[in-house]
Amino acid sequence: xxxxxxxxxxxxxxxDVTVSAPEIIGRGFMxxxxxxxxxxxxxxxxxxxxxxxxxxxxxxxxxxxxxxxDQVVLIRQFRLPAHLATGRGDMVEIVAGRIEDGEDxxxxxxxxxxxEIGAAPERLIExxxxxxxxxxxxxxxxxxxxxxxxxxxxxxGGVADEDEDTQPFVVSIDEALAALGDGRIANALLYSALxxxxxxxxRLQELFSRAA
Length: 212
Description:
alpha+beta, seven-stranded mixed β-sheet, single chain, 37% strand, 11 strands, Nucleoside Triphosphate Pyrophosphohydrolase
């Protein structure tokens, strides 16, 4: 039986590759490493590459939803790379943060909500995971929908000893989705979460009930 057209092409797969031990290029908040890679290809000599990787590890991201009010909770946070790239470093984002070693992704998602917006979700649903920039970092982001009462959100969030300052705010789902098409926002995590929300808006009550 032949394979269904397109299914093989539309799936990530293991590579026939040899990867050297890492050479440490730099250490800071994250580790910067260099690798030598030998990528074997059918009927051709191996492709030899030298690649640098920023070891960013795993992240939990949450789109906090208030079903009763038809609202979402977003945050503002300064991002230096965005400032350098576009001059608009005061970015609109969703809740997100690093998953600690040994920590469950859902536990991290709840913790980040408390830290960044001051409110814990009543229910969390894991949605999907992506590699946002696989060309230079191993960062893997797991997205969650977090259902909560937006009236509990603080005016200011963030962890002081991490020099973090977040400014939560609440908007209607309609207003958030409208921002997708007019160039006001550039954060990729926010775009991804709002695209999911647009596709699944009519199923939110079903998902909330399923998570009970």
